[in-house]
Amino acid sequence: VGRNILHFKKIESTNKYAKTIANESVDGTVVIAEEQTAGRGRLGRQWVSPQGKGIWMSILLKPDILPTDAHKLTLLTASSVFNALKEYKLDIKIKWPNDILINNKKVCGILTEMSAELNKINFLVIGIGINVNIEKSEFGDDLKDKATSLKIEIGNDINRKKLTAEILNNFESLYLQFLKNNDISKALEIARNNSALINNYVEITTPQTNYVAKVIGIADDCTLIIENNGKIERLISGEVSLHTN
Length: 245
Ligand code: BTN
Fold this sequence. Notes:
Layout: E1 5-11, H1 14-20, E2 29-36, E3 54-61, H2 71-85, E4 92-95, E5 99-102, E6 105-117, E7 120-131, H3 150-154, H4 160-181, H5 185-193, E8 201-205, E9 210-218, E10 224-228, E11 231-235, E12 239-242
Parallel strand pairs: 1-2
Antiparallel strand pairs: 2-3, 3-7, 4-5, 5-6, 6-7, 8-9, 8-12, 9-10, 10-11
Helix pairs in contact: 2-4, 2-5
The structure holds biotin.
């Protein structure tokens, strides 16, 4: 991972670019940009990506795993980012399946995109966006209460290069372990021990309905275990937000 790194000053979106070069690029290719002009989040949302203020990168993977196991790599990525950030001794949590929160505000989002056919993955692009040195005033009114940055929480600028390297190192060791032995236990342990959701009530939004459920845990297959009206159910992905009343 990261033996082939493509670095851009300005690009529309590292995920979008990684997808266009996927077929002719090697497994573990990393695309990094200083600025994204059309950074994208989940559900078609926009991702604010100002010049030099964050880590905006995508990892291109060609793992020999089933498409139905791809979501595990999202959790593995979240755990890799978490481990790189934990040295800052902040109140940092993983919000299954793809966000990292500090003091309950989002500091990192992960967007996994897949190209697959039947039982074979052609490629995966895992996009990681981390608000590193963004100032509070740079978040629009809609984001001010929901988003944060390392600089806002710590009070000083953070070295993006060092943090990027640490994330890629963590990712590589968890990824190789996963490919070799299908072993996701280390990433799971990190996600379980530092979960923003476990034991809390959450609001779950699906295309069909909205409901409140209690989060019981994260299963060995990385799905979220919830209790919904006395019934135990599992979510493979989804829009989950903490329920406050
Ligand atoms: C989310 O929380 O909605 C996911 C955000 C993912 C943002 C990253 S930044 C690098 C990569 N390129 C993109 O356009 N998006 C991802």
